[in-house]
Amino acid sequence: MANTKMKILRVLDILKETDEHHPITANEICHKLETYGIEAERKSVSRDINVLMEYFNNDSDYGYEIVLCEDNRKGYYMCSRLFEDWELKILIDAVWQARFLTAKKSESLANRLGSLASTESRKVLQNVTPVKSYIKTTKPKISEHIDMLLLAIRKGRKVEFQYQYTDTNMEKQLRFEGKVYLFNPYALKWRGDRYYLIGNYDKYDNLSFYRLDRIYNLAITDSRVKPVREIVGDNSANKIEAYVSKCMYNFGGENIHPVLRVKAEMVDEIIDYFGEDIQFKKQEDNYFDVRVSVNDGDGLYFWLLQYAEKVKVISPKSVRNELLKRVHAIIKNYDENESTN
């Protein structure tokens, strides 16, 4: 009986290697089964395939879409899969582009994703993914941090950790002399090249970001997490998502609605950063005014300085003044450097 159960599982594994362009006959399956030390006749293999197909044909949640070619002599192939090839390509690319994963971890995940494709599709996926072009981290702790934080969120427990920075000698140091943060974890977000923990530092009543690659000595505590609704109110998942979407470069702050005057060539950039739910109002000389929703933090001013030649703040006055203050600080910095040369 055990050998019979193993046989049908091996038949399924063999069929998973096929596709419409690379079917396999029952006799060929028999030969492949021999490599696993399993003897089988063509008729018994056909019966196994019918069993695998049965529940799918009965519109059940189980079973596999295995198809017999119109030319019966060509055999069978697996028609539907958990993921299409293009879906696997996207997932594999994401795994390799994730800088927070080590090369070894990315390779393991990519190989497991590739195993969900047919043999020939797997070869194509490998050939069209230039893995050596990606910069990878050398810190395996990040995957452990993700696992621990998911557990903490599921259990509703606070976490504690220290936070690192790199000094001018390229050595890691602990912020604030090794201060231990007691933190309420609510969400994990992958933004840009980094993974972030989003939650609440016990001392305050707002949300904040912490980069997982800078977290050190992470531990799950026995203390119950502060309910997220005390921080953001009801519909917490949507509120956190809205908060994150308005945090430019992952800096928090009060939500504001500045009006920006932009050149026509900036429309795509504005949409990339602020979404499509905005309206452009035509002004003179091919300029447009647009009202956006964003958090008033360092990230906003970094972005405004980046596009200072093409974007002008119309309102509020507080944002204009803060931006000009930073511009003057830049000019002063350059003037001081010039005087010392």
Characterise the protein shown here:
Strands 3, 4, 5, 6, 7 and 8 form a 6-stranded antiparallel beta sheet that branches. This protein is α+β, with helices and mostly antiparallel strands and 341 residues long. It has 12 helices and 14 strands. A hairpin with a 7-residue loop joins β1 and β2. The chain has helices spanning 2-15, 26-34, 42-57, 85-97, 103-114, 119-127, 141-155, 229-232, 236-245, 267-274, 298-306, 317-340, and strands spanning 66-68, 76-78, 157-166, 172-174, 181-191, 194-201, 208-211, 215-224, 254-256, 259-263, 280-282, 287-291, 294-296, 311-315. α1 (2-15) packs across α3 (42-57), α2 (26-34) packs across α3 and α4 (85-97) runs antiparallel to α5. Helix content is 42%, strand content 22%. The N and C termini lie far apart (86 Å).
Task: Summarize this entry quickly.
By secondary structure, the chain is α+β, with helices and mostly antiparallel strands.
